[in-house]
Amino acid sequence: MIKVFEIITSVNVGGAENVVFNLVENCSLLYPDAFEFTILELHSSPSFYSKRKKVELRSKGIKVITLGGSKKRESLLLAPVRLFAYLKKERPAIIHSHTDLPDFVLSIVLRFLKLKNSKIVRTIHNTDLWSAYPAVGKFVESAFHDDDVIGVSKAAIHAYDKARNTYKLPVSTRTSVIYNGCPVPKPLTHHFTLDKGKYNIAFCGRFFYQKGVDILVKVLGQLDIKLKDNLAFHFIGDGPDKNLIEKLAEENDNVFLYAPVSNLSGKIYGFDYLIMPSRFEGFPLISLESSLSKVPVIASRAPGLDETLPADWPLFFNLEHPEEIDRIFENIVNSFYTAKDLRNVSFDFAVKKFSLEEMSSHYSKIYTS
After folding, report:
1. Edge-to-edge strand list for the sheet holding 63-66
2. Do 272 and 199 touch, CB atoms closer than 8 A?
3. What's the whole-model pTM score?
4. Does domain 199-353 correspond to CATH entry 3.90.209.20?
């Protein structure tokens, strides 16, 4: 069996992490005698979801190892030491790193440990790489050479190329795009307070700059009375911009706030629409999960996000023109769209283009080549 190490930030709720879980679980199912997977997390999480997910992974024969402690910063100091020891002892055939912090930790180890018989695989999950820490980015990227580099979207590979060129480093000759696969979510019970007399629109994710939650809050703060009377907005998540949403909810009786929810993919079916005003994305699974739940996505034309929906999708808007969001809301209230058609078009697009089997097949070929 081929020994594969998957390095992630933490076993927790997150887009990149869910991709890894889907990948190892599906590969283990499709190729039961081909791979031996170990997930290495940089730091642990005390969440109930994390504890339950680790039990689930281990029950499927997937090992889970925590390299650091429970604190992110301290783990960045401890994780390289423990990763060095595990790699030296286990000598896996494949070392697969996901996102910036795992890349950072692995880049330190690679400077001290020669792994002649191990293949390095990197998956780029975002379209904004090291913009806040360019010096750290150069340090990390200089440790990687002609490795297998996978983008979760065309935009993610473009971001990788741009970063390498900025640091005057050669781009890998082995780059490719593998779209994230996503299963059709199974409906689960939820606790959302849905208003049957209104269109219920959800925002799901981190409340911070990348996701554009500040843009949405500003738009909602200026809605006219007709739209307020016909639309209800549900914010599910947490993050540094939470105070903006709390204030909005206090001032508007059609705005609701919920803490992060585990297994969210199975609970969004009750909404009429999902809205994603993202400034940039790698490849957001929540968009696929929403389409597969037959909940149409109101989406910005952000790199990465735009690849999850049909090119002529009528619910796209440009962030440079936030008034376009108002226009979409007005069209919804005025029944301009045929909801059934929107649901079917986005569902069919997602099913055909983003299957778990196709994603697993592509990665397995990289692991075995």
Report:
1. 63-66, 35-41, 2-8, 94-98, 119-124, 148-151, 174-177
2. yes
3. 0.82
4. no
Query: Phi-psi bin for 75: left (phi > 0), alpha (psi -120 to 50), beta?
Result: alpha
Cβ atoms within 10 Å of 331's Cβ, excluding its own: 13
Bridging pattern class, strands 273-276 and 199-204: parallel
Token pair of 191 as six digits: 């606790």
Of the chain, the end-to-end C-alpha distance in Å amounts to 14
**pLDDT by residue (tens digit) across 3-31?**
999 999 999 877 789 899 999 999 999 99
Show the DSSP H helices in the chain as ranges: 15-30, 48-59, 72-90, 100-110, 134-141, 154-166, 213-220, 225-230, 242-251, 285-292, 323-333, 339-353, 356-368
Q: Is there a contact between 57 and 26 (Cβ–Cβ < 8 Å)? A: no
Maximum distance among all Cα pairs of the chain, rounded to whole angstroms: 66
Domain ranges of the chain: 2-181+355-368, 199-353
Q: Which residues of 65-96 are buried (b: 16+ CB within 10 A; e: fewer)?
A: ebbbeeeeeebbebbbebbbebbeeeebbbbb
Topology alike, domains 2-181+355-368 and 199-353: yes
Neighbour tally for 279: CB within 10 Å: 17
Q: Is the dihedral of CA 219, 222, 224, 229 positive or negative?
A: positive
Q: What contacts 312, CB < 8 A, 6 or more positions away?
A: none
Q: Residue 261 above 90 pLDDT?
A: no
DSSP state of 187: P
d(CA 108, CA 199): 50
CATH class of the region 2-181+355-368: alpha beta
Per-residue pLDDT of 178-187, as tens digits, reads 999 988 999 9
The answer to whether residues 172 and 197 touch, using CB atoms and an 8 Å cutoff, is: no
Structure confidence by residue, pLDDT tens digits, 345-360: 999 999 999 999 999 9
The SS3 call for residue 74 is helix
